[in-house]
Amino acid sequence: MTPRDPSPPPSTDLLEPPGAETPTRWGTAATAAGSLGLAPRSDWSRWEADGRLPRSLDGSGFGVDFATDLELLAEMGLTTLRWGIDWARLEPWPGRWDTDAADSVTEVLRAARRAGVDVWAVLHEGPLPGWFSEDEGGFGTDEGRARTWPRHVDRVAEEFGDLVAGWVPVLDPFTRAVEGHLHGTRPPGRRDPGGFADALRDLHLVSHEAWRLLRSGEPPVAACIDLAPLHPDRRSRHPEERAAAVARADELDRLRTGMWARALTEGLVATPGRGEFEVAGLAGAYDVVGFTFRGARTVFSDGTTGPYPADAPLAADGSAPWPEELGVAVRRLAEQHPGRPLALLGTGLVAAEDDWRTEVVAGTVAEVRRARGDALPLGTALWETGIDGWNPTTGFEVPDGLVDRARHPRPSAAVLAAAAGGAPRS
Q1: Could you check whether the bond before residue 338 is cis, i.e. omega within 30 degrees of 0?
Q2: 394 Cβ contact list (under 8 Å, min separation 6)
Q3: In principle, which of 24, 196, 313, 374 could form an S-S bond with 181, CB 3.0–4.6 Å?
Q4: d(CA 13, CA 155)
Q5: What value does the mean pLDDT take over residues 323-349?
Q6: Nearest of 56, 172, 164, 74 to residue 124 by alpha carbon
C-alpha cells in the first residue's frame, strides 16, 4: 500500500449535487498517451511502429516537468485533472509489475496534490498491454474479464487509491467499441458488427466490475457516457428515407446512451442481437454519472453520419463542437438519472484556430452556467486538453490545448481561467 501523503486529501465534491452558490469545478483532461506518449508494450504502439498511427514521442512532455505543469493549471483555477493510469506501463509483461513506472505515477499524483489539483484516474481509455489484448484475448474472454482485469484494478487501487480524487473505470465504452470493432480505426482494427456488440457489452461489464471493486475505497467512481445528440435527416424528399433515418438514429441512440440508461436504472445490459440480461448491483451503480461531449451528429437513412447542424465546421478530428447541443445533452441526461451528480469529463476542440477554440470555450462556460442556473447537478467540467499533446488522429500537427507545448497560454486559456477564478501566466 502506498504510504498516505501528509498533504490534504483530494476533494470528493462530486459526490454532492452542487447548490446554486457552489462554484463549478473547472479542470482539464489528458490521456496517458497524449501526455506521455504511447507505452512501448501497448497494443497501440505496434500500430505506431507500422505507421498506422502518428508518432507519439513523449506526448505533451508532461513527464519532463509535471510539477510545473500542474502548478500552471492550478494557477488558472483548473483544479481537476482527468488522467489515464496506463496499464501497459505498469505491467508491460504478464505478472511483471514495473516499480519504476508505478513510482512515476505516484510522483505525479503527489505533485498534483501539492499543487491543489484533484486527479480523476482513468483505468482504460484505449491502449492496453499487448500481451493482454492480443495474446490473451483481452476483455473478450472470461479469464480477461473475471480474473486478469479485476487483479489489475485491485493492484492499482492498492497502489494509488490514497492519492486520487476519483476513478473512471472505462472512458467512453461506445467509442472504444466503435473504433476497435466496427470502424477498425484503432486496435484490434476489426470491422465486425457482431464483434462490436460483444465488445460494447464486455466494456460495460468490466466497467461495472471495476466499480464493484473500487467502491470499498473512499474515492468516488464515475461512469463515463459519450453523449452526442442525434438528429435524423435525409438527402432526398422521399418520405421513406426520413422514416429510415429516424429508425437509424433511434438505433444508434439506444447503443450510445440508452444502453447506459437501462444499465444504471434497471440493471440490464442489452446489446443488439445478443438479448438482455440483468447484472446484480448494476442498477444505481457508480457515485457520479460522468460524460464526454464532442458535438451532435446528423444521421442518414443508410446509417452514415455527418455534423450537426449540417453546415457546422468540422474539427481536425472529425468532431463538430457546438456548445448549444451540450445543454440539450445535459438536460436529457439529468432527466434519465434524476438527482444523481453529473460531471462533464471531457469536451474540447482539435483546431489550429484559437479564435474558434475561444468561441467554443465561451459557449461551453455559458451552457454549464445555464445548467447550474436550472438546478442541474453538474458540478465539474473538464476541457480536453490543458496542454497541447498527442492525439491518434492528427498526432502533433493540430493543436488541442489551451496552452502550447512551449507552455505559453493561448487566448482561449484566459476565457476558461476567468470562469474558473484563476489567471494564466503571461
Answers
A1: no
A2: 54, 316, 317, 350
A3: 196
A4: 25
A5: 96
A6: 172
What helix, strand, coil percent values describe the chain, rounded to 5? 40, 20, 40
Helix (H) or strand (E) holding 243: helix 239-253
What is the rounded CA–CA span in Å between residue 203 and residue 199? 6
> Residue 286 pLDDT > 70, yes or no?
yes
Q: Can you list the pairs that 400-405 forms with residues at least 24 positions away whose Cβ atoms lie under 8 Å? A: 400/348, 400/349, 400/350, 400/351, 401/60, 402/28, 402/76, 402/357, 402/361, 403/72, 405/60, 405/61
Specify whether the backbone of 421 is left (phi greater than 0), alpha (psi in -120 to 50) or beta: left
**What's the pTM?**
0.94
Burial readout 66-95 (b: 16 or more C-beta within 10 A, e: otherwise): beebbbbbbbbbbbbbbbbbbbbbbbbeee
Q: If you average pLDDT over residues 125-139, what whole number do you get?
A: 97
Sign of CA dihedral 209, 215, 218, 220: positive
Q: What is the pLDDT of residues 217-245, one digit of tens each?
A: 889 999 999 999 999 998 888 888 989 99
List the one residue out of 389, 392, 386, 393 whose CA is nearest residue 417.
386
Instruction: Tell me what percent of the residues of the chain surpass a pLDDT of 90.
Output: 87
Residue type at 21? E
Q: Are 200 and 272 in contact (CB under 8 A)?
A: no
Sole residue written with cell 480477461:
144
Q: Give the model confidence (pLDDT) of 44-74 as tens digits.
A: 999 999 999 999 999 999 999 999 999 999 9
Cα separation, 345 vs 233, in Å, equals 29
Angle at 354 between CA 352 and CA 357, to 5 degrees: 105
Instruction: Report the C-alpha gap between 140 and 344 in whole angstroms.
Output: 29
Q: What is the pLDDT of residue 349?
A: 97
Q: What pLDDT does residue 272 have?
A: 79
Query: Cα(212)–Cα(202) distance, rounded to whole angstroms?
Result: 15
Q: Is the pLDDT of residue 370 over 70?
A: yes
Q: How many CA atoms lie within 13 A of 80 on its CB side?
A: 25
User: Half-sphere exposure of 140 toward its Cβ, with a 13 Å CA cutoff?
Assistant: 16
CA-derived radius of gyration, the chain: 20
